[in-house]
From TrEMBL:
InterPro entries recorded: Aminotransferase_I/II_large (IPR004839), Asp_trans (IPR000796), PyrdxlP-dep_Trfase (IPR015424), PyrdxlP-dep_Trfase_major (IPR015421), PyrdxlP-dep_Trfase_small (IPR015422)
Single GO BP term: L-phenylalanine biosynthetic process from chorismate via phenylpyruvate
Classification lineage: Bacteria, Pseudomonadati, Pseudomonadota, Alphaproteobacteria, Rhodobacterales
Full protein name: Aromatic amino acid aminotransferase
Signal peptide: none
GO cellular component annotations of the record: cytosol
Organism for this UniProt entry: Rhodovulum bhavnagarense
Obligatory cofactor(s): pyridoxal 5'-phosphate
Family assignment from sequence similarity: Belongs to the class-I pyridoxal-phosphate-dependent aminotransferase family.
Length: 395
């Protein structure tokens, strides 16, 4: 029997954690695992601007016939302005809509493989685990580069620049645009400039995965690094997601943008990206894309979205700061100060797998095995309990 030849796949760790959390009868359990935004009441709301855009679409949409294989041009244009900036050269830009940021990462890597089947993908250590999974599935070689010094609890920019010297023409350097997952440690503008200079020298191709634009310092500021690369480099791949900043996780909304050195190389990239969409799922999902377009192209909806996104960002920042302050008071040490300074939803608390298990078993505190916490899963009243559990586990 053919199907008998299948071998079991390791289950997704975060999904397994979610199931364990759901099955835990303790009423005071705390979920800092799964990467979705939560408000003060613990909900992941539909954003007001999204509801309004959906209502508008319901009224005005007269057909749901197929869009183009690359996705709705109005969506790609509006999202490109948001992500790459309005100065990005349209005549050098290719684009496809994709099912979420995961689809964008997959298609971006597929494009790199089409351009060079032997390409090596340089990935920050640590990174979102699906990067390694997709790279491995595509049969590409992964090279980890130093990014975060777990002992110092900070970026290892020096180590990163040394390791990236080894990426040459035909290789891809994957970078997180902002709100690095899982560390929350982001490159400074000076670091981005140093990376741009290095890539100009080595000829390696940058691929920026930006899944949390607006969760760090604001929707424009979070794209600073990416835009430094847009200006400095002849070629660039960008994978973007609307899941988090529009709160439309299940609508599967994202895009790949590619900058080519010339209009001709742009056309070649566009032809290959369109083919990738066609032979994978033909037309990308459209509902979320249309919601995003409505919001970005309407001044009132855009202002409403911007205000709510700013509120989400500040909510996460307050919880970060509260946890860092409480841990400083309780431990009498500054070793958790990084939690207050890092960006976005995630940080590493510096726990080993045994300590993570202990916090789960003894305190009902759920986090990912590498000690990643989702700061949006906290709420201010639970900060002391979380801090206590962390210190009791020996952090
Ligand atoms: N890139 C990174 C770094 C992420 O953390 C995520 C979400 N977990 C994604 C891409 C993909 O996001 P989605 O497919 O949900 O849009």
């Amino acid at each position: 029997m053919m199907l008998g030849h299948l071998s079991p796949q390791t289950p997704d760790k975060i999904m397994a954690l979610m199931q364990a959390y759901a099955a835990d009868p303790r009423t005071d359990k705390i979920d800092l695992g799964v990467g979705v935004f939560r408000d003060a009441a613990g909900h992941t709301p539909v954003m007001r601007a999204v509801k309004a855009a959906e209502e508008r679409l319901w009224q005005i949409q007269e057909t749901k016939t197929y869009t183009t294989l690359a996705g709705d041009p109005a969506f790609l244009s509006a999202l490109s302005d948001l992500v790459l900036g309005q100065e990005s050269p349209a005549e050098r830009r290719a684009a496809i809509a994709t099912p979420g940021g995961t689809g964008a990462v997959r298609m971006g890597l597929e494009l790199a493989r089409l351009a060079n089947p032997g390409t090596r993908i340089f990935v920050p250590d640590p990174s979102w685990p699906n990067h390694a999974a997709i790279i491995g599935f595509l049969g590409l070689e992964r090279v980890d580069y130093r990014y975060y010094d777990a002992r110092a609890r900070s970026l290892d920019t020096g180590g990163m620049l040394v390791d990236l010297e080894r990426a040459g023409p035909g290789d891809v350097v994957l970078l997180h645009g902002c709100c690095h997952n899982p560390t929350g440690a982001d490159l400074t503008a000076a670091d981005w400039r140093a990376v741009a200079e290095l890539l100009t020298k080595t000829g390696a191709l940058a691929m920026v995965d930006i899944a949390y634009q607006g969760f760090g310092d604001g929707v424009q500021t979070d794209a600073t690094g990416l835009r430094i690369l847009v200006t400095a480099l002849p070629e660039l791949i960008v994978a973007t997601s609307c899941s988090k900043n529009f709160g439309i996780y299940r609508e599967r909304t994202g895009a790949v943008f590619v900058l080519g050195e010339t209009t001709k190389s742009r056309d070649m990239a566009q032809s290959n990206l369109t083919m990738l969409n066609r032979q994978t799922y033909a037309f990308p999902p459209d509902h979320g894309a249309r919601v995003v377009t409505e919001i970005l192209n309407d001044a009132d909806l855009r202002a409403c979205w911007q205000a709510e996104l700013d509120g989400m960002r500040l909510h996460m920042q307050r919880q970060r700061q509260a946890l860092a302050d409480t841990l400083r008071e309780m431990s009498g040490s500054d070793r958790f100060a990084h939690l207050g300074a890092e960006k976005g939803m995630f940080s590493l608390v510096g726990a080993n797998p045994e300590q993570v298990e202990r916090m789960r078993a003894e305190h009902g505190l759920y986090m990912i095995g590498d000690g990643r916490i989702n700061l949006a899963g906290l709420s201010l009243d639970r900060v002391p309990r979380v801090a206590e559990a962390m210190l009791a586990a020996g952090l």
